[in-house]
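Continuing the batch. This is chain 6 of the set; chains 1 through 5 are on the previous pages. Same settings as before, nothing changed between runs. Recording input and output for traceability.
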Amino acid sequence: MSPSRPADQPPSSNPKRSVEILALACTAILAACGGGDDTRSSEPSTSAAPHTSAPAPSPAPAPSPPPAPTLSHWFAGGITGKTLVWVGDSTTWQIPTSGAAAYLTTTYQQTGEPLAGVTVLYYGANGNTLANFLNNQPAGFGLSSIVALAPNLIVLSYGINDVRQGATSEPQLEAMLIQAVDELESALPTTDIILRLPNSFLSVDVDGNGYVVPNSAAQAYSDELAQAYRALATHWPNVVLYDSRKNLFSDTCLPSSPLMLDQLHPSLLGYEDIIDQVVAITDTPPT
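Output for chain 6:
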């Protein structure tokens, strides 16, 4: 039996036991203060909801095509008493000389017909270029002469003599067409215009006239005309494209055609068909 301790002697000191007691005390204090062991980890929780990407935005709607040009001024108030003028090179000059103008008069200008009461004029300059037209050549047939007429409707067809020997590229022809129409529109703001795409060439040098140089480039030159005109199909609100290739002639340069007199010029039948289709445009008001 261990000897008894005197009443005034403190219990012996035990360091290990003291630490354990202190730790338990701290734990109790932390628990009381709500600061017990935090089981949350500083690392991202693997049980969190997966990240979802925002839905991809809907593609923007395609822009609406520009409205189709119309001859709004021409039809306003009716066409009786108005003036229509055909302007261009030899493929305009030949309309009266071939007899096609007489066909227009007897078929379309009589009482009750589409162009009854309309004055029709022809300002075609044989061999002329669009570049010359812009420079008011030849006298009496240039742009300023057409402005002086103050017509209500112009059927404009130039470019054959600009491209048929390689002197003018498609971008150059397009730029000149824009300049011609802009100047006409500026001077005659209530005048409408029909851009008449010239006929395609034949691939054969009929009668050896040497119109196309080199002749092997007939298709390329013909394509330049089509591309320049078609690029302007919706360029102005009151300038309508008459695409003679889609409606009458072929885009392909053919060796021969009943619609063609020679490599460059339509036959009488070709001119009459052109007149039929142009008159149909002038007789159809916008809806």
